[in-house]
Structure formats: C-alpha cells, structure tokens
Amino acid sequence: MGLLSDSWIIVLSLGIATLVALIVWTRHGGTIWRNIGILCGLLTLLVAAADILTVSDREVVAARLDALTKSFEAKDPNTLAFVSAQSPELRGIIDMGMKAVTVRDVRLSDFDVRFTSDNTRAIVNFRASGDMDVAGFGNVGRQPAKFEAVWVREDGLWKLFRVVRKNPINDSPIELMRPSAS
To answer: Which of 11, 22, 55, 158 is the most exposed place for a label (fewest CB within 10 A)?
Structure first.
C-alpha cells in the first residue's frame, strides 16, 4: 500500500492547513502566513493531481474484469484474449459459454482485490448478476452469482487464470456452470 493509496487524508489535511494559514493571514497579516497558505494550497493540488493520474494495479485488474465482462456480453471473439494461455480448460468453458448463453445488463459489485506472489497474482472476489438466455431453455431471468477470480500478469497484462464460483451464503465452491436457482 503506497503513500498515495490514502491520499484523500493528505489532501484533506493540506486543505485544512491552507484554510487555517489563510485565515490567520487575513486576520493578522504577515507574509509568512500567506506563503504557508500558498504552499499548502499548491501541495494540495499536487497531491490530488498525482492521485488522479496514478493508476494502481487494483484499478487495472478491476478494469480488466469489467472489460472481460463487456466482451463476453457482446460475444466478442477476442474475449479469450483476456484469459491466460496457461488455462486451456477455462478458455474452453468461456468459449462454450459464449455459444450457449446470452447475457445482458451484467452488473459487477462488492469488489475485493488482494495481491500475492510479489504482485504477479491478483485474487478478486466479486458479485455479478445479469439477465440470461440459455440455449434450449430460453430466458432464465436475472441470475446472481459470487466469484473468486485469480488473475496473473503475463507479458505486462493481467490475464484471467482461474475462476471459482462460490455459494453466496457460505463461500463454499460450487460448479461454475450450475444454475443459480438449484
């Protein structure tokens, strides 16, 4: 966890220091308080800009998951580019899923991202729900699910390596393709 991960505390503290210095300057005068106020104000802007421009691995992994979901929803043939070449079984399941299922209005929530192995693996726990049409069954309604996804860094990109579907009540693993209603 770097310095800028909690930058809102720094920005708030510097903002308060700026305000206090400028209030003291307007009441009592003196260039020292004006200069402290200006310095704190500039530092506030600098820290806020650095935080906005810095993209963490956590944000990158979440964005990759979102892009994968949108690609799957669109049945984009490039969806498999998000999946590690080291996971042929998962690639097959995703390819089969794109052929057998049509998903609409997918919503992702409750993200929890942890990193292991010197930031070469990311474990993402999240919830997903979407309207589904299954080949041979038709519309099966909105299907909620909970997942643990393991992402690995390959050639500078985060790639999906493993997915475990979880019971939303007790977090025990359940079959990936099992219907939610049963």
So the answer is: 55
